[in-house]
Amino acid sequence: MDEIAAPATNLLVLTWNGDSWTVDLAISIWLAILIVAVCVAFWLLRFRNGISLSKFEIDQAEIGVGSSKFSFRPNLTDRQVGYAIWVELSTRKIGLPIDLEHDVISEIYSSWYEFFSVTRELIKDIPVSKVKQKSTQAIIKLSIEVLNEGLRPHLTRWQARFRQWYERETKRYEASSGIEVIDPQKIQSQFPMYEALSQDMLKVNQSLIKYRNKMRQLVIKD
C-alpha cells in the first residue's frame, strides 16, 4: 500500500492512500474540542446577545420626526423594545389608520396619551448597561423624537381645546334634545377648527404608522 502523509502535527494529519485513491484526515481531539467551543461561543454570542449579522437603517425624515439617518446592528434589547412598541402601536388607535367618519377623537386622544406613557416607561426600563450601546441609543433617540416631535405638538395644541369644547357641546346637546344617546362623530365634526385639527391628526397618524412599520422591521429582520 502506497501512502503519502503530509507533515504531521499534534493537531492535524492528512494521509494519501495510493492503493484506494483516498485521502484520510485525522483531527486531534483537542482540535475538535476547540472547533466545537468556537462554534458554541459564536452561537451564544449571536442568539443569546441578539447580535445580528446585518445592519438596520433608520431614516427619521422618512418617519417625519427629524433629519438624522443612521444604521446599526440591533441587539436583543433593541428587538425587545421594538417588539413592545410595535405591539402597543398595533393594538391601539395610534399606529392604525384613522377614519374620522367612524372614530371618536376623544378616544383617539386617550389612546395617544396612554401610548405616550407606556413608551416612556419602556425607555426608562432599559438597563443602563445597554444604553451605552450605539444601537440602543438609536432606538431611544427615535422613540423620544416620535414622542416629542410627533405626538406632543399635536396634543399640546389640540387636546385640551377639543376635550373642553366636546364635553360642553355633549352636555348642551343632551340638554336640548332630551336624549342621552348621541352621535359623537356628528358632534365632533362641528368643532370650530375641525378641518385643521383633522388634517394635523391624520398627518401625525401617518408618521406613527411608519414608526410602527419600522419597529416591525426591527423585530423580524434577520
**Helix/strand order, N-terminal first:** EEEHEHEHHHHHH
Biggest sheet: strand arrangement: 1-2-3
Please give the radius of gyration in angstroms: 29 Å
Query: Terminal Cα separation, in Å?
Result: 52 Å
Helical residue percent? 55-70%
pLDDT averaged over residues: 81
Give the CA-based shape.
elongated
Which percent band covers the strand fraction? Answer: 5-15%
Number of domains: 2
Structural class: mainly alpha
Number of helices: 8
Please report the total strand number as a whole number: 5
Name the poorly predicted regions.
1-9, 49-53
Largest sheet: 3 strands, antiparallel
Folded structure, characterized:
This protein is mainly alpha-helical. It has two domains: 3-48, no CATH class; 56-220, no CATH class. The chain has eight helices and five strands, in the order βββαβαβαααααα. It has helices at 29-48, 60-63, 76-91, 105-124, 128-131, 134-177, 184-188, 194-220; strands spanning 3-5, 12-17, 22-27, 56-59, 69-72. It has a three-stranded antiparallel beta sheet. A two-stranded antiparallel sheet has the order 4-5. Helix 3 (76-91) packs antiparallel against helix 4 and helix 6 packs antiparallel against helix 8 (194-220). The longest helix has 44 residues, at 134-177. The two termini are 52 Å apart. Residues 1-9 and 49-53 have low confidence and may be disordered.
